[in-house]
Amino acid sequence: MFLLVLVGFVAARRALFDAATVDALMRYAIRFAVPCLLFRAVSTIDLGAAYDWRTMSSYYGAAIACFAVAAFVAWRVFGRRPGEAVAVGFTALFSNLVLLGLPVIEMTLGEEALPTAYALVSVHAPFCYLVGIVSMELLRADGRALPETAVVVARAMFSNSLMIGIGLGFIVNLGGVPLPGAFASALAMLADSALPVALIGLGGVLTRYTSSERIAETGMVAGVSLLLHPLLALALCTLLGVTTDVRNVVVLMASMSPGINAYLFASLYGRAEGTAAATVLLGTAAAAVSVSAWSWFLVGA
What we know:
Layout: H1 2-13, H2 19-44, H3 47-50, H4 53-76, H5 82-93, H6 97-109, H7 114-139, H8 146-158, H9 161-175, H10 181-206, H11 215-240, H12 244-254, H13 260-269, H14 273-300
């Protein structure tokens, strides 16, 4: 999986892919293929089994703790203003569950583990943006008012192709809507192309960032994402009695590096953009080692 990211990174560095090609790959993945993948998954999973409160509490309880830790350290140790600290904390909160998490789960734990992973993905963006927006608006002293920002982000989320794919999947699942055979076959081909194309595109996108921005702070956020988040998730899974199979999914998903949405959130508010971009790059590179270590630990545990 990480070799595919490396292929995209090297191809972009060597000018085998220009910026327009990388953008086209990501547009295809994010606007077409990944929504089809999410739609197919959500429309067929057992919703009652996938959305267990202990599973959600383990992952998102750990995520909230990491958000608070990263924001507090950015504020008190690195001298960030409150609004900047929230953006740094959001970088530790928003993990790359789609482009990295889903292929890791499938390759490491098998297709039978995917329903839990899809359940986590389906509420990830709404949850993280809600936490980030409310925190930012409560702590920063300038910018647009909270209601105006909420309207802007809600509109953006409901027009987001990933959220549309998830929403349509819920409609088909809950409504018992049958899919025509030809449509299902075409959907399957699109869905199967999603993750390989997205991983190569992600590698190309990462060439646009630098890891030299506030390296100590960047390392702190990467450490919170790659180490503290899965450790806390493991502790909560143990405390709440989550089964071993589900625990492995939760902890592996928690071990993913920060996603590009962390940079987009920082850009939305104009806060800590350099740190967010640098952490996405450093975290993705470091995840090749840390995620492999977590996979080995969990499968062997």
